[in-house]
Amino acid sequence: FWKERFLGISVCLAAIGALLLSEQLGTRGRQTRLEF
Fold this sequence. Notes:
The structure is a single chain. By secondary structure, the chain is mostly helical. 94% of the residues lie in helices and 0% in strands. It contains 1 helix and no strands. It has one helix at 2-35. The longest helix is centred in the middle third of the chain and has 34 residues, at 2-35. The chain is rod-shaped and about 50 Å long. The protein starts with a helix and ends with a helix. The model has no long low-confidence stretch (mean pLDDT 84).
C-alpha cells in the first residue's frame, strides 16, 4: 500500500519536474532565438 502511494507521488513529482524543465528550456530557447 505504501509502496503504491510512494510510486504515485514520485510519478506526480517527476511529471511536474518534467513540465518545469520543459518550460525553462523553452524560455531559454526563445531568449537565444531572440538574441540571434
